[in-house]
Amino acid sequence: MNSWGNMLRISLFGESHGKAVGGVLDGLRAGIELDFAQIEQDLGRRRPRTAAYSTQRRENDEYELISGVTNGITNGAPLTVMFKNKDVKRDDYKPQIARPSHADFAAYIKHNGFCDLSGGGHFSARLTAPLVFFGAIARTELRKQGIEVFSHIKSIGDVEDDSFNPVSPQKNDFELDFPLIDKSKRKAMEELLSEVKSEGDSIGGVVECAVTGAPAGLGEPFFDSVESCLAHLLFSIPAVKGVEFGAGFALAKMRGSIANDRFTENPTNKYGVSTHTNNAGGITGGLTNAMPIIFRAAFKPIPSIAKQQSGIDLQAMKPVSAKAEGRHDVCAALRGAVIVEAVACICIYDFILREKQ
Ligand SMILES: Cc1cc2nc3c(=O)[nH]c(=O)nc-3n(C[C@H](O)[C@H](O)[C@H](O)COP(=O)(O)O)c2cc1C
């Protein structure tokens, strides 16, 4: 399905090298003044970089608001945003050859050969442009309630940034095009990206995200726990293959005496209490517990690489050696950070609206 949501409902449409991509956001109250500067900032972070390790496809992400906004203010009707595709090069793709680890083969089978596979078609990360647009609206609404969502590049390959302090993550003065806690790691990360690119290869990375200021008690367990809704949206982002909350998989190696987040009095906190540690990542029982929500999303390496590998000739259904043509990113985590933030904003804002029901 291409729709998600509860109080807010999102639908995405379009293909990478078709006429346009876009989305419909339903459920926004009337009277929200769109923060176009925030929208532009977030879209800018998703856009390909000028650096050599980014895809050379150039889309300026000009968008058209088709419905739902009058004079920059939501009017209560579904908000439809459309991004026309301009830098389209269908000839770069050989849709009859399914690339290894891309969606091509599975999509071809699912849609009986009728799907548009150019540039990944409907499976392209270009579909995340409307998602980031909607995320920016949710971000602005959350900020009015003292809730901030920010992230950093936790790792690229084996080059690691520091981790957020789970009890008090700080946005500091992140460079938004390459957010790092330890800025001195940028050089090593960029060198690695350039090296990987020069080898015609790609590489994976991890984005760590924090949500601060969320009240306790958000979430609708059993099935709409905060973890499950966040994970649902995070796993919808192309190339995300792992998600962990708080101490995540490390919890499986701990004893309870270490893992438990012990309570303490805290006069600065709205509830008068908080916890010494935050191994739970701000979520217990599927509900927010007023500690920062901390999670990580692992991006696999970009599948399209300039190396000969066996794909599938979809007509003959036989493996063939081919290398990906076209313009591709080297690491999805860089542009992925703002997409992770966007889905977190949408998810938390949706929970807040459910609370008000
Ligand atoms: C920001 C971003 C940029 C991406 N750029 C490319 C790209 O240039 N080439 C490519 O083959 N895949 C790219 N991907 C990944 C594919 O879209 C994704 O791997 C593919 O749709 C298969 O889905 P899956 O990896 O979730 O299984 C990108 C993903 C993200 C999040």
According to DSSP, the number of beta strands is 19
Average pLDDT for all residues:
94
Instruction: Determine the strand fraction and express it as a percent band.
Output: 15-25%
Please name the CATH architecture: 4-Layer Sandwich
Distance between the first and last residues' Cα: 25 Å
What ligands can be seen in this structure? flavin mononucleotide
State the fourth-level CATH superfamily: Chorismate synthase AroC
Number of structural domains: 1
- CATH domain class name: Alpha Beta
Q: What portion of residues is helical? A: 10-25%
- Shape category: globular
| Gyration radius, in Å | 21 Å
Global structural class: alpha+beta
Report on this structure.
- The strands form six sheets. Strands 1-2-3-7-4 form a five-stranded antiparallel beta sheet, covered by helices on one side. The protein has a five-stranded antiparallel beta sheet with strand order 10-9-11-17-12. Strands 8-18-19 form a three-stranded antiparallel beta sheet, with no helix packed on it.
- The protein is an alpha+beta fold and 357 residues long.
- Helix 3 (128-143) crosses helix 7.
- The radius of gyration is 21 Å and the shape is globular.
- The chain has a single domain (3-355), classed as 4-Layer Sandwich (Chorismate synthase, AroC fold).
- The mean pLDDT is 94.
- Helix content is 24%, strand content 24%.
- Strand 2 (9-14) and strand 3 form a beta hairpin.
- It is built from seven helices and 19 strands.
- The structure holds flavin mononucleotide.
- The site of flavin mononucleotide has 20 residues, from helix 7.
